[in-house]
Each structure stands twice: as structure tokens, then as C-alpha cells.
Amino acid sequence: MTESTFVNKNNTKSNTASSDIVRGHLEALRSAMKQRGLDAYYVPTADYHLSEYTGDHFKFRSWLSGFTGSAGTLAVTADRAGLWTDGRYFLQAEDQLAGTGIDLYKMQQPGVPSIEEFFLSSLPEGSRVGVDGRTISAVAGEKMAESLKEKNIALIPDADLAGIIWTDRPALSAEKIRLYEEKYAGKSAFSKLEEIREEMRKHQADFHVITVLDEIAWLFNLRGSDIAYNPVFLSYAVIGETQVHLFTDSRRIEGPALDSLKALGVILHPYEDIYLIAEDPDILQRESRILLSKASVNYRLYTLLKESGFDLIDKKDPAIYLKAVKNETEIHNTLKAHLRDGLIMTRFMKWLKNNVQSGDLTEAGAASCLDHLRLSAENNLGLSFETISGYGPHGAIVHYAVTPETDIPLEPRGLYLVDSGGHYLEGTTDITRTYALGPLTQEEKEHFALVLRCMLNLMYAVFPEGVCCHNLDVLARTPLWEHGLDFLHGTGHGVGHLLNVHEGPNSFYWKLREGAEPVPLAPGMITTDEPGVYITGKHGIRLENELLCREKESTAYGKFLHFEALTLAPIDLDAVDPALLTDLDRRRLNSYHRRVYETLSPYLTDEEKEWLKKYTREI
Amino acid sequence: MTESTFVNKNNTKSNTASSDIVRGHLEALRSAMKQRGLDAYYVPTADYHLSEYTGDHFKFRSWLSGFTGSAGTLAVTADRAGLWTDGRYFLQAEDQLAGTGIDLYKMQQPGVPSIEEFFLSSLPEGSRVGVDGRTISAVAGEKMAESLKEKNIALIPDADLAGIIWTDRPALSAEKIRLYEEKYAGKSAFSKLEEIREEMRKHQADFHVITVLDEIAWLFNLRGSDIAYNPVFLSYAVIGETQVHLFTDSRRIEGPALDSLKALGVILHPYEDIYLIAEDPDILQRESRILLSKASVNYRLYTLLKESGFDLIDKKDPAIYLKAVKNETEIHNTLKAHLRDGLIMTRFMKWLKNNVQSGDLTEAGAASCLDHLRLSAENNLGLSFETISGYGPHGAIVHYAVTPETDIPLEPRGLYLVDSGGHYLEGTTDITRTYALGPLTQEEKEHFALVLRCMLNLMYAVFPEGVCCHNLDVLARTPLWEHGLDFLHGTGHGVGHLLNVHEGPNSFYWKLREGAEPVPLAPGMITTDEPGVYITGKHGIRLENELLCREKESTAYGKFLHFEALTLAPIDLDAVDPALLTDLDRRRLNSYHRRVYETLSPYLTDEEKEWLKKYTREI
């Protein structure tokens, strides 16, 4: 699945809160602001860990404003209120904000002020702006505080007004935490701790504060389900040279998970107590040097530690890199997970091809068939994200999520895009295929060929050690660029191991995001390769394989690396016009299909085998 | 020509200074050090403008040590002396330093200390290290000063001992300065000054100090010849909002050049007086904000301005970017220069092919034939660098310069590499071709095909606006990488307009050099495309075309750019095995050759036309 930071996501669910309810909420907020001496308040969309998705406990902006889109920030002063969101939500926000008195600010449109500019223009000198500093990063908080200084406006980072006025707030999720056995994780939590400590020593750090949920789950070999699709649990961790502290609702840890933490000597604390560590000499000692990442730790925790006089070392969390390079067990198991997923995709494709003529299929029905195949597979622990099942023009909506209102029948013509994945005990998968449901237009064929050429170009890349992700991205774009086409999302992202389907630091995109360090590819990294073409109102095509980075050979010019495609499922030959491919493209596709057939066929019935043979035939 | 910062350059010229003479020089140096209270002294290899090449006036390190290589730093204490140089000079340095008492420090070899480490380990606390701060950049000087602080060692940046002990020092070059007429420059010096001032205003700078020679030549539409192959003149410039100061030996400026400077209102000062500006209220006012680039200004000038209390704004010189984007006149004229150069290369190739069987040709003879063709061409103002003419194994020495000692006959077999270029009134050229002089081995054919594929891949790239040079580099390497091969230099560099053959900021290399900003390609930029393969002891292959960045089309995905090959000369089809190319490669080569024939043939005799037709035939 493409990363949401780059792309549009449709979300047409409508909040039923009437504008009167919203006005009531805003009134309560303004009254709480007055009580706390705040002249303004703003509410981003994030949990305290700045996770990609948030649980219901953290949807304060949505509750306050009535706007339910997945991205948006609400800013409120005594007499004005504004909501900032991006292009994918303009229509929805206009609709949901009507009558609430909240103005819509369309981000990235010419002339539209930023939130900082809004505060600077509407507040007098010396004002106070409040925010729940747990819902913004230290980097974002410092940037806001710096901007506001221009008018001597103070940013108050511990203003938790949700805690005061949101009376029917959903509880914090506290789902069971399970041990992820070492036979699957491939490395003990003890070894991982030692690796983290080794990195801490490199920076002369006495402590390391981790707030990112998938890093904590990875480190302790634990998995939870506090966030939809992400097998993580709400928690913070503080690692010292001898002690380890875990801050989470510990009532939900029992059995092997609890035993494992005990064996590690982990000291458990209530979730909220992370904000007390600065004053707890049993955890942090005065003058301690603390390693943390300002980009991922929240502003309140950061401010608290900084103001308590600790020496803070701002570095990327070591776990990001350690987690990204999969160990031999993880790789061995991932291959199994992909075999299972490839069989599912093959059966789904066969079912689709056989049934599309019936006229009974719809986007939702097909997604449900695919989800059922995955959820009933051996060792499946759920989907890794909500299946994207888009026919025709819906395929052009990059993060389309079918709803009863948008569902349409699959007709025996044109293109159908399915982006889906599963969590298995053996690993997490993410695959996109686009299928021809019948005859295609010449344009559809041409676009399919270009996307396929892009995917193959990157998949077959060979490169010396040291080459970075952003160096290779053009390989997956030049065939499209030559035709004046492009796709407005990254070409690929790292994939967690029974963890988040999107993880860093590896990702394919030619632009380095601001402040981002180049990431050299390393053997053991898994990254998706998912170029696409999206023609609004017509069709969308995306093809996605996961690529495992491997050593290829060592020569006089150093060590060379290449990719092994983990994803094994046919590329729909009904959509491929061989005349639109080069010799090299054809050789590459044939070689990939040969591997698909050889790997999957031993697990198929004779009839399935026959079918797969046809769909992986040489062209 | 590949940039020397990336590559090896052979230089086997031997200094005849015996070790006794060197010992005498070192004794004089040590005595001068003592007089100035210096415990150590070091001598880099650079002029006061940190130019790529230096004139004889600046070869103090060579005079002192007897080591004549183009790169090296000498460090001397009361009882020790060391010379640091890199891999391409180890043999030469060992030879030339024998008996001098100077130790050779082989850079980048394991266990070899850096110069900083040498000083820190051999000098006592509180020592004083001298350097002529005009020969190192502000960045390098600050780094050295910072390192030495560890032992409280002071770096003295104004210790010009060459001025004291080098009695037979060659004078500063003061060759004539000529006006470069606006009909060739395409823009008046007045307009360029206004553009620079506009950039200064963006940074709220009152003054801009320029010390880089090609920037000054470009800005004033003047050309000189103080440095071999680089049509520049020794000078500094200070630009204010109303005044312009030029520091150079003004006795050599007369006629139209002088008139032009007068018309611009330029105030002329002696060259050395740049070091007096801090105290001259007619030039800089107190509290002035000065824009300068710490990477290009020398340490002494920087220190002087800093210690005088000016507010220094460290930014890349605006002229770098302005100069890199060629204007319409420059582009129009460059096409003419390349047409002329293409005819020369075609005639050279024909002569070579016709005469190699005779057995009379040598590397030096062939170079001399080519140089003669260029130097006698219309509007030629010299070569843009020393012609590289390497047969067989010599082709594998990236910056091979043939000498009477190394010259070898060209035999009617194997590969011969020629990298050459010229300065014309209409622009500067740089082209490399590798020719088959007879039968090739299978390996030679395979390597030639790979290099050709690499060059074509980059040459035919299409990409959206915003894509940076470092993004595209992999296109010129993947065919080699797939075979475990690579070349250890950048793929290309910017080319000046009747200026230095190497200029920035555009260059193709997948690695971003430390501290370097990504450079988006812009229409009007000219960059070379010169991949290669170098097999020590066997052969070297490099193919180089200059590429002009142009707009291609605007689509729903933005503005797309592509390249126009400026270089027009046949790729030797005798070296091309079509079976080793893909369909696409062949189409691209044929299309390029068609353009070569169509553009050059109107200027050729019938016989030449016939010959070119054969060498640009479709394959």
C-alpha cells in the first residue's frame, strides 16, 4: 500500500453531529480556554506516539469540529475557529463544517494562511496559545513556538482540554499484549536490548527514551492490537544501562508475555507515568544524557525533559535501523508468509476471472472474498490494512476504501485494482495487482505496460553497497516520465515484520524529505516497489511487489546488492500487450513468472496448476 | 573530461631538485618558522582562489619538497617533515622524496594519521602552527583550527613564509585581460551585476565578496589567461549596492576591456589590496553584512573580515547558479562551437582510421594532430584542457597525460581513448571518444557496449522539473552495475561558457558530497555524460557527450525536461557489436547518429560525407 503521507485517501463517511452540537463543543472549549488563561487553542490529529493511524480516544479534533477526515488541525480563538486540511478533504470538510462557524482553510492553496500565520494575524502581542503537547512532535512544537515568538505569543504545551471537556471520550485502548515468540522474531528481546545499548554507548547516552509504538513492540518481542491494522500497544519505554522501564497498562499482560518481561527485568509503570520520569530519581538520574529523536518524541515529553535540565541527544532511534534489517529467521519466515499470500492472490485472481462474467461481483464483494481467503489462512492474525478494491475510475483514487455508498459492480471490461495484505505469524505482506476484467482500451494497455516496465526496472536493479533508496527511484519512473506521466506518491516503503505495513527508514522516492538523511540499502531490508498511473474518471493501475535486498556478488568494484521479489503472484497477462514491452522487459517478466509458477505450483490442485501455468506463460 | 577530484591523474614528470636542494629549502623554512615563533608549518597545493589548477607562483609545496605531483600537502615541524598525498602519487612521491628527510604519508591507507593527527601527536601543548591562510578555504581552516584546540595549539593564518624564503619565486601571472563581447556573452555585465545584487538583497547583504576566478570573469564579461586552460585572471571582487571594486593587476587592462569597466563604474585596486578592505571605509562600512561562501573564500580573508566584526552570511555565491544556466545567446553559440568541434572530431577519426595501419602513429602524434585541428579552427582560443590520448592499458589511467617517456605506438588492434576539448569564442567543448584501432577482444566489445548503453540511458532521460542531478546518475551506471562493473568518478560535470571546462553546481554523481545541496536540473544547464570502464593493464573506455537541459513538454504532471546532446561526433561503430545492445539502445544510437550526419554533412567534402555516412549508418 502506498504511504498515506504522499497520497489522497478517500473518506466519505459523514459525521452525524449537527452544527449545533459542534457549536456546543466549541463553547465548552472556549470556556475551558478562558479558565486556563488561553487566548487560543489548537488540536492536531495524532495520538501521543504520532502514529500513522489513531484510536478513537485520540479523535478530539473530530469530536470538536464534526469533521471526520483522517487529516486536519482545528485552531480556535475567542471569536474565530478554523480547520486546516488538504486537497483530498476539501469537499467533505465544506460539507461537515457548514453551519458550525468554523472556517475551512485549504492547505497548499495560494493565499491561504498557515496556522502560525492565523495566530500571528488574529492574536494580540503577548497572547497564550494552548495545545496538548503530546499530540505534536518536538520538532513541530519548537517550530510553532519559534514562529509565535515574533509577536511575543507563548505556546503552552500542557493544555489538555480534551481531558476536561470531552466527557464521553472513548477509553484508551488496552487490548491484550501477546508474546511474539523468539522462533518467529529470530532474536531475543535481550539481544535487541544489548544492540540498543551499544548504540546508546556510541552517543555516550545514559538513557534512551522510546515513544514509537512499533519500535517498542519490536524491541520486547511483544504484539498488541490497540490500533487497527497495526499490531502494537500503547506504551513508552526508557532504556538505561542496567534498567528497563515500560510504561503501559500492565493489567493486560499475562502468561508468557509477562514471564518474558520479568525475565528481562523490565520494570512496569502505568502508561501516564512517563510524564513523571523527570522527577523520579529511581528512573533518571540528574545530569543524565538522554538519547531521543525530536522528530518522533512528543513535544510535551521533550519539553519536560529539557526543562528538567537533562542533556538531550537528538538522534534517530537506533531501533529504526535495527528493525529495518530483517534477521535470517524473519527472512526465512517472510518467504513462507509470501508463499501463503501468493497462493491466496492466485486463487483470488482465478475466482475473479471465472466469475466476473456473471455480473454478480461488486468491489465490496470481491474485497470480502479476498479478505476471507486471508483471514482463514494458516497463522493469519488479520489484515495489514483495509483492502483497497477499486474498479474503473475508483482505481484512480489512490487510497480508495469501498463503502456501501460507493460500491459498484465489476463489469467484464476495463481494469480493477486491488491493494491488500495480511499479518501472519511469519510476517506482514502488502501486494497490489491490477486485473483486466475483459477488453481494455488502447490507453489502458499502454498505461499498464508502462507501470509494469517501471516495476520491473526497479525489481531487477543491481547496485553497489552505499547506494541509497532515493538514488534508485528514477528506475521506477523513467518509462512513465518519457510519456509525460507520473505518480504522486513514493514508489515504495519499508514493511514491518508482523508490525506496521509502513515503516522506515527505507523508502523509494527521488525527493529526500526535508531533514531526512539518505538511507543506504542494506541486505535484509524489505521495501515495496509500487509504481502506478491514475487517470481521474477513467482508471488506476498499480503493481506492487515487496523486494528483499540481498547480496549479489563482490567484484573489484566492491560488494553489489540486488533484490529478491518476495511477492509471488501473477501479473495479469490479459492486461499485457507484449508489443508494448522491450525484449528486456519480456525476459524479466518471464523470469518472474517462472519463479511464481515454480514456487506456488506444488501447493495447488491440478486444475489450479493448469490455470496458473497459463497465467505465467512465457510471452 | 572527468573531474579530477574523483579520479587519478598520472604525472610522472620528475623534479630534478636533488635531495640536497630540498634539505636546504627545509632549513630555510625552519629558520623562518623560528623567527616567526612557529613550531610547525604546512603548505597545501592551491592558489589564493582555490582554483582547480594553479600557476607556477603558487607551487611552493613543490619547490620546498621536490615532489611535483598535482596534489599534496607538506607539514614541517622543528625535527620532522611529512608529505600527504593520495594513491595516484605514491610511487612518484616515494621516488622524489627519497633522501630529503620528508616522510611520505599515504592518504586513505589504514593506520596513516591525518595532518591534524600528526600535529596533535608531535607538537606540545600550546604550540603555534603557521599556514598561508590564502591557500586554504575558510571551511578547511576552521576545521584545522578546531582540531588543534584539543591541545591548545594555535593556527596562525597569516604566515606567508613563501614570501620570505622563496627567493626565485616565479612572478604572479598578469596576462592581458580581454573583453568578452556581449554578442558572445549574451548578457551585459551591468545586467549580471543587477542579478547578483538582487540575490544579495534576498539575504539582506550590503556587500558580496567574490574570490572565485571564473565567477569574476563571467560577471564582468572579461577573459584572461593566468591559469593554463582556464581563461580567467587573478582577481577578487567586492560588490556593493552602488559600488563595484575589482582587485587585480590593472596594468594589463586596456582598450575595450578598460572602457567596459569604466562604463560600469568599477573601481580598480591592486590585487593584494583585497586584504586591506576591512580597514577601508571607502569600501566596507562598519556593521556591513557581507555575503560570501566559506567553502570558496580563503581562510585568511575570511578570518580578517570576521575578526573585524563584519556580519558574514555564508551562502553559495549567487554567480554559480546564474552562470550555470546558459542564456539564449550562449546556447545558440555553443551549438556552433560544437558543430565546429564535431567536424574536427570527425576528421580526426577518419585520419586515425586511415592511418593506423601505417604503424607510424603514436599517442603523442595523434594528440598533436587533434590539437592542431582544434587550434587552427575558426575562433579557437586554445584547448580547454590537456588532451588525454591513451592507447590500450594507458586508456585505463583516467587522467593520462602522454609524455615522451610514456608515449607508445598505436597498433592496429584494441582500443584508443581520446578525451579533449577546445575554447572557442562561441563556447567551451569537452568530448571523449574511444576508437577501435582494429580487432577487439570479446571483453573489449562487451565493455564498450555497456559504456555506450550507460551513456545513452542518461542522454535520453526525461524527467519532471525538480529532479536533481544526483537522482539521474544511476541511469548511467546500472548496465555496468549489472555486470559487477563501475567507474570511480562522477558521471559528469557542468561546463563553462568560454570558461573552465569543470564548473558547478550541476554534476552527475549518485553520492551527494558532504555538505552539498541537491541541485535540480534547469533548462539551460550543460552537463557532461561520461561513463567509463577502466581495466588496469588492459583497456579503458569512456564515451562523453555534453548534454544541454531543455524543456520537453508540460502535462497534467507538470513540466518535463530532457537533454539535447550538444556533442556531435560518431560513436565508433567498429567497436559496437549490435547483438550486445537492446532494441532501445540501437534505436537511440541510430537516432543520435542520424542527427550527427544531418548536422555535420553539409560542411564536409563528398569524400568525407561518404565516410561519415558509413560511420553513422543504422545498425
Per-chain topology:
The structure is a homodimer of 619-residue chains.
Chain A: H1 19-35, E1 40-43, H2 60-65, E2 73-77, E3 81-85, H3 90-97, E4 103-106, H4 115-122, E5 128-131, H5 138-149, E6 154-156, H6 162-165, E7 178-179, H7 182-185, H8 189-202, E8 207-210, H9 213-220, E9 222-223, E10 236-240, E11 244-247, H10 255-264, E12 266-269, E13 289-292, H11 299-307, E14 311-314, H12 318-324, H13 328-355, H14 363-375, E15 380-383, E16 388-391, E17 415-420, E18 422-424, E19 427-428, E20 431-436, H15 442-459, E21 462-464, H16 469-472, H17 478-481, E22 492-494, E23 503-508, E24 526-529, E25 532-535, E26 539-542, E27 545-555, E28 558-565, H18 583-600, H19 606-615
Parallel strand pairs in A: 1-5, 3-4, 5-6, 8-13, 11-12, 13-14
Antiparallel strand pairs in A: 1-2, 2-3, 7-9, 8-10, 10-11, 15-18, 16-17, 17-20, 18-19, 21-28, 22-23, 24-27, 25-26, 27-28
Helix pairs in contact in A: 5-11, 13-14
Question: Could you explain the architecture of this structure?
Answer:
- Two copies of one chain form a homodimer.
- Chain A has 619 residues and is an alpha+beta fold.
- The first copy, chain A, has three domains: 19-165, Creatine Amidinohydrolase, Chain A, domain 1 (3-Layer(aba) Sandwich), CATH 3.40.350; 178-323, 3-Layer(aba) Sandwich (Creatine Amidinohydrolase, Chain A, domain 1); 325-615, Creatinase/methionine aminopeptidase superfamily (Creatine Amidinohydrolase, Alpha-Beta Complex), CATH 3.90.230.10.
- Helices cover 33% and strands 20% of the residues of chain A.
- In chain A, the strands form eight sheets. The first copy, chain A, has a six-stranded mixed beta sheet, sandwiched between helices.
- In chain A, α5 (138-149) packs across α11.
- The longest helix of chain A is centred in the middle third of the chain and has 28 residues, at 328-355.
- The interface between A and B is medium-sized, with 33 and 33 residues.
